[in-house]
TrEMBL record:
A single GO BP: acrosome reaction
Gene name in the database record: LOC111941730
Listed SMART domains: Tryp_SPc (SM00020)
EC number: 3.4.21.10
Catalyzed reactions: Preferential cleavage: Arg-|-Xaa, Lys-|-Xaa
Cleavable signal peptide: 1-18
Domain Peptidase S1 stretches: 38-279
Keywords: Disulfide bond, Hydrolase, Protease, Serine protease, Signal
Name recorded for this polypeptide: Acrosin
Length: 326
């Protein structure tokens, strides 16, 4: 019976969390604490894998002082996805900036929090600052990030994913600390409605400023604000309990005003550009079926290798007892 239980545990644990890319798109955590910044949002409590791919991009000065500038999401062990406008008119070298992952509070530290420096910044070649066209960028980190229950990668939709059919969407970030300072620095999340691009581009809404490379979401009291730039807009997969990142927060007219949704850069539009820059092959154009959909595994309560060692030790003990009895 003991051996059977151990075998079941080994089967349930799945791959170790040390390798990024084996799981992605962990779902936002439900909680009931209200706050501001992501306007109309709620606090995200630490742990439990909530918003596991999100990162705080921080600028550092001497003496050591840091400030949150933008959000971003981990898309592989050494690459972060964010907005290009976060790096316009920067005054200190990008190598002095830092990426903080695994934290829900800006002041959080400890074994779950990982800090990396930026090795390289890649802004879209056709980024136009005045119009925020092609507002997307990639950051290569100085060292790979070990994935864990609190740090995972985002899932980017390839050409086969029907993004228009995805529902149950969220935004997250540490923004609006100046406009609506609440005295804390806790990550905010909010459930938002994605607005069809045709409606978003109509005369009563954003009147001609929306293109195919945009996604509109959140308005009327719920949405992103200053400091949320570069952060994720995610929507739940139709067949599994994980989320696709469909947008990178780019710009908005005010914060969560009626008929003025926040505008994100559409990750599906830039999917091939992203894959080319980070050196991976684009996904096939076929539509994924439920069996093909990558469903995140849950963190194993025990390290897999430790269970194997215990299993082998237990076999030796049983063999020893068997020899003594007979």
């Amino acid at each position: 019976m003991i051996l059977l239980c151990i075998l079941i545990l080994l089967a349930m644990c799945g791959p170790a969390h040390g390798i990024c890319g084996q799981t992605c798109g962990l779902r936002p955590m439900r909680t009931a604490l209200s706050s501001s910044r992501v306007v109309g949002g709620i606090d995200v409590a630490p742990g439990l894998g909530a918003w596991a791919g999100i990162a705080s991009i921080r600028c550092f000065w001497d003496p050591p002082v840091s400030a949150h500038v933008c959000g971003g999401t981990l898309i592989s062990s050494q690459w972060l996805l964010t907005a290009a406008h976060c790096f316009i008119n920067i005054t200190n070298p990008i190598s002095q900036w830092a990426i903080v992952l695994g934290a829900t509070s800006l002041g959080q530290s400890g074994p779950d929090v990982v800090v990396r420096r930026i090795k390289r910044l890649i802004m879209h070649e056709n980024y136009i600052p005045q119009l925020e066209y092609n507002d997307i960028a990639l950051l290569e980190l100085d060292r790979p990030v070990p994935c864990s229950s609190s740090i995972q990668t985002a899932c980017l939709p390839g050409p086969g994913v029907k993004v228009s059919e995805l529902k149950n969407c969220y935004v997250a970030g540490w923004g609006d600390r100046i406009v609506k300072s609440s005295g804390n620095d806790i990550l905010q999340q909010a459930k938002v409605q994605v607005v069809d691009n045709k409606l978003c581009n109509s005369s009563e809404w954003l009147h001609g400023y929306i293109y195919d490379f945009h996604v509109c979401a959140g308005q009327g009291g719920v949405g992103t604000c200053q400091g949320d730039s570069g952060g994720p807009l995610v929507c739940q997969d139709k067949h599994a309990d994980f989320f696709w990142q469909i947008g990178v927060t780019s710009w908005g007219v005010g914060c969560a005003r009626p008929k003025r949704p926040a505008v994100s850069s559409a990750t599906q539009y830039y999917y091939d550009w992203i894959q080319k820059k980070i050196g991976t092959r684009p996904a096939p154009t076929v539509t994924p079926t439920p069996l093909q959909t990558p469903k995140p595994t849950q963190p194993c309560p025990f390290p897999r290798e430790k269970l194997r060692q215990f299993f082998n030790l237990l076999k030796e003990i049983l063999q020893f007892l068997k020899e003594k009895m007979f």
